[in-house]
Amino acid sequence: MHRLILAAASIAALTLAGPAAAQSPIVIKFSHVVATNTPKGLAAEKFKELAEKYTDGKVKVEVYPNSQLYKDKEEVEALQLGAVQMLAPSLAKFGPLGAKEFEVFDLPFVFENKTALRKVTEGPVGKELFKKLESKGILGLAYWDNGFKIMSANKPLKDPDDFLGLKMRVQSSKVLEAQMKALGAVPQVMAFSEVYQALQTGVVDGTENPPSNMYTQKMHEVQKHATLSNHGYLGYAVIVNKKFWDGLPADTRAQLEKAMAEATAYANDIAEKENDDGLAEMKKSGKTQFYELTDAEKKAWKAKLLAVHKDVGSRIGKDLIESIYKTTGQE
To answer: Do 170 and 133 meet the contact criterion of CB atoms below 8 Å apart?
Structure first.
């Protein structure tokens, strides 16, 4: 907290530095917690490139990957204080912030495929969710894909009963905790940057991730088995400090919005490819055995996990869940 306050104070001091400072480029510190060669990391670099191009250098974007500045639990607070201007946290981060509605994205099997997902993120539901952040000093600019998640552990995970007693790392999300509990596992909330070591040392037994995250963080080196369950979605919201964004010159803001729209299209195009490539590389390494669920096995997973939708309905809003069913055409 002390570090965040000092950083915010330094930014405030620079803002008051006078005409010389006003002629300097507007700096956007863009912090995130994953590797540069992940879909989010590559998209952040694409936004930097486009933002600096479209503003003719009036804006300088500094990208800080791999938790260089802040870990999972610190970064949103840093944004609110103005220590950084832009983040792309996973959607699960907004529940602990008080916007519990975003945990709807964590529901298992809530999206059958990318088409169903896009109807939500690019439609009225996605826009209404972003409005929930404004009272917290945050503006939502875009939704970026990472992909659909797979389960991993040091034992095969074919039947829901295979999870009994396993310590499974999850993001800080009550829905994800409920998901693991429904499977009989013990959920362990942990920062993303700490997961590899926790898996290596046995602090946790397994976790869930899209293949690109699993590969770039080398989790396949410390996980013997993985199931291609595609049971849940991991996505990000690109967010900015509202006061900073509202204070930008209108023409600069429009140029940055253009850059963000193009970076978002790029992000969502490459996410699937990065996951496919990461999965192929992990299979090639031979360190993790990957398993495809049969139709009967997937049905058993769904039977266990769809109960979570009802269990957390009062937390994230039954009407919201119903609106997603209606938007995606799911029963």
So the answer is: no
